[in-house]
Write a structure and sequence with these properties.
The complex is a heterotrimer. By secondary structure, chain A is of the alpha+beta class. Chain A has helices at residues 45-51, 58-62, 70-85, 91-119, 123-144, 164-190, 192-198, 206-211, 216-220, 252-275, 325-337, 345-352, 356-360; strands at residues 5-9, 21-27, 30-37, 153-154, 157-158, 291-300, 303-312, 317-323. Chain A has one domain (44-330): Cytochrome-c3 Hydrogenase, chain B. Chain A starts with a strand and ends with a helix. The chains are: A alpha+beta, B alpha+beta, C alpha/beta. The structure holds iron/sulfur cluster (SF4) (2 copies).
């Protein structure tokens, strides 16, 4: 007689925000093998970028890959094209780009934290965090004119300047968010029922993090020092107080703590930017057509995002390759599931913060 | 335990976080990115906005009854599809006369209905544009 | 960005001698359609904690060639291998079709001869 049973999770499941299917093979409660299917929302964006749109419009196209890290997508693409065109953008534009990037990271991490709580059965915390997340959404809307699709980055700079009212509101709201996040920090470290679901569950060891090439908060929770903000120089992250956040346990709790610490770090960076914003233009016109190859990496909220862009001197590009963070992490995800209880699977999955519309693009 | 009881009790009298929508209107920021508006009198028919628009939501198509504007030599007419527009305001930045000929408002589009035939009429325009 | 040309036969050896899993980080496998029914495959690596050090191994191949798999050395390569199979219609050792595309969709969309 067969000793194992197959239990699917997805493609529609209460704990999922986006369609993905995992097929777990379980022996009693333990997961012994995992199979995944991630291609439910494939939209052919890479092909559209090389057949339908001119290079200056693609920044807006790739922003539609994903709603949560829209800004990182358009930023990476624009940075790649700027590299090919060989222009330098102003310091102020760079600072404003980081500002929005970090605001985006704050709200994305808050969404992930709330979602992990929900999947661990703590609905009240979910609502609390989602409610507080509105504070960040509000300033994003003031800054860019839209809550989710910012369309803020543009080849050569940014689209909108910041005025003193908005700057004041950003500082106020971020102060408020900081107080709330301090409250979560307490909850995530001391709450007994959350620790039951989070501590020691879904752990990834440092060695496995290396060999599976884990990235983002997943890797940093295992103690792997990988943060692209530390490895690039097109934006001055170190100037404005970036600090790598790592933990060592590698379990769900460690991932949550990494995210919370990153929120604090991002708030600090945003405050520094708003207080010390250099004077200058926000836009420099770059001339020419992209020619040659460029690889650009950025740290999206979920980890490293890579763009490969190849142009041939005409308005149509030859190739746009998007490597999204969740996509690269899928082998690591499936590895973590093995040996865990099926009942913990939703909470573990949420703690990865998977973004399937990125993955399938 | 006690603090959580007190919290639970005070929560009963707290106002909800959400907005009671149709009764209380949602406050729209002045700078909110919404529909693109067009002032025919000031337009110089340079067609820069049409070229700049990523999804192609602005089309200038030949018409039988062109406007009086003397810049409009080819007899074109402006068409705008609010349901295709992504509100990126590339067109406004491309326009040589922003605020007079083309500007961004903070208005929302009405919901598209089947009766409005938004898609069908737009496809017609796209076909016309192609055959020109 | 440093580009190193390899051939399909030697790529596994080259990567094996180069790849130290504590120093290098496998980014992705990338494909690029070239003229005359050829394509370029790129194995892209970056270094941990170094300032923008990216190394690209690349090989020019025909669509009929079989690309060797590196998933035994680098387990995370499996997913990008499956992607390239779908997108370019090439064969990668041990990677099956169907990560994104269904049977009734456009096949090999990025290969320059989509069907
Ligand atoms: S706002 Fe953007 S999408 Fe809308 S019409 Fe203008 S350029 Fe086109
Ligand atoms: S860019 Fe401005 S002036 Fe030119 S056609 Fe468009 S609306 Fe008219």
């Amino acid at each position: 007689m067969k000793k194992t049973i197959n239990i699917p999770l997805g493609s529609q499941h209460i704990s999922l925000l986006e369609p993905v299917r995992f097929k777990f093979e379980c022996e009693n409660e333990k997961i012994i093998s995992v199979d995944s299917d991630v291609g439910f929302v494939h939209r052919g964006i890479e092909r559209a970028c090389t057949t339908k749109f001119k290079f200056d419009a693609i920044g807006y196209v790739v922003a539609r890959v994903c709603g949560l890290c829209a800004i990182t997508h358009s930023l990476s693409y624009t940075a790649a094209v700027e590299k090919l065109l060989g222009g330098e953008i102003t310091k102020k534009a760079k600072y404003l780009r980081i500002l929005l990037l970090e605001l985006d990271r704050i709200h994305s991490h808050m969404l992930c934290l709330s979602h992990t709580c929900e999947n661990a059965g703590f609905e009240a915390m979910f609502m609390r965090i989602m409610g507080d997340r509105e504070l960040v959404m509000e300033i994003q809307e003031l800054l860019t004119g839209n809550r989710v699709q910012f369309d803020y980055i543009n080849i050569g700079g940014v689209n909108r300047d910041i005025n003193s009212e908005v700057a004041k509101k950003i500082i106020e709201n971020l102060y408020e968010v900081k107080q709330r996040v301090l409250g979560y920090m307490d909850e995530f470290t001391n709450n007994w029922s959350l620790s039951l679901k989070f501590k020691g569950i879904g752990a990834l060891s440092l060695d496995d993090a290396y060999s599976f090439n884990a990235i983002g908060p997943l890797a940093r929770a295992s103690g792997l020092n990988i943060d692209v903000r530390n490895e690039i120089d097109y934006l001055p992250f170190n100037e404005i107080g970036f600090k790598m956040q790592t933990q060592f346990e590698g379990d769900i709790n460690a991932r949550n703590i990494v995210r919370l610490n990153e929120i604090f770090n991002s708030i600090l960076m945003c405050e520094n930017i708003v207080n010390g914003l250099p004077e200058g233009e926000i836009f420099t016109k770059l001339k020419g057509k992209p020619n040659g190859e460029a690889i650009v990496r950025f740290e999206a909220p979920r980890g490293e995002l890579m763009y490969y862009v190849k142009g041939n001197g005409s308005a149509m590009l030859e190739r746009v390759r998007i490597k999204t963070p969740t996509f690269a992490c899928i082998p690591a995800f499936t590895h973590i599931f093995v040996g865990e209880n099926y009942a913990d699977a939703p909470a573990i999955l949420a703690s990865f913060d998977p973004c399937l519309s990125c993955t399938a693009k | 335990m006690l603090t959580s009881l007190i919290k639970a009790f005070t929560n009963l009298f707290k106002k909800p976080q959400t907005i009671d929508y149709p009764v209380t209107p949602i406050i729209k920021d002045r700078e909110y990115r919404g529909l693109i508006e067009y002032g025919e009198e000031s337009c110089i028919y340079c067609l820069k906005c049409e070229k700049a628009c990523p999804p192609g939501a602005i089309l200038f198509v030949k018409t039988e009854t062109p406007s009086e504007n003397e810049k409009n030599k080819k007899g074109l007419q402006y068409h705008y599809n609010p349901y295709l527009c992504i509100y990126c305001s590339e067109c406004v930045r491309a326009c040589p006369k922003p605020d007079e000929a083309l500007w961004q408002s903070n208005k929302k589009p009405l919901p598209a209905t089947k009766e409005g035939k938004v898609n069908e009429s737009w496809f017609e325009l796209e076909k016309l544009k192609k055959t020109e | 960005m440093k580009k190193i040309k390899v051939s399909l036969e030697s790529v596994r050896e080259e990567i094996e001698s180069f790849y130290d899993y504590k120093k290098w980080h496998f980014l992705t496998l990338n494909g690029l359609a070239l003229a005359d029914n050829r394509m370029e495959v790129q194995w892209i690596f970056s270094k941990y904690e170094a300032l923008d050090e990216v190394v690209v191994y690349y090989a020019e191949i025909e669509y009929t060639d079989i690309i060797p798999s590196i998933a035994d050395m680098i387990p995370s390569a499996i997913i990008s291998q499956r992607e390239i199979v779908d997108m370019f219609g090439v064969k990668v050792d041990g990677s099956e079709k169907g990560l994104y595309l269904d049977e009734d969709s456009i096949q090999r969309p990025l290969s320059g001869c989509a069907i």
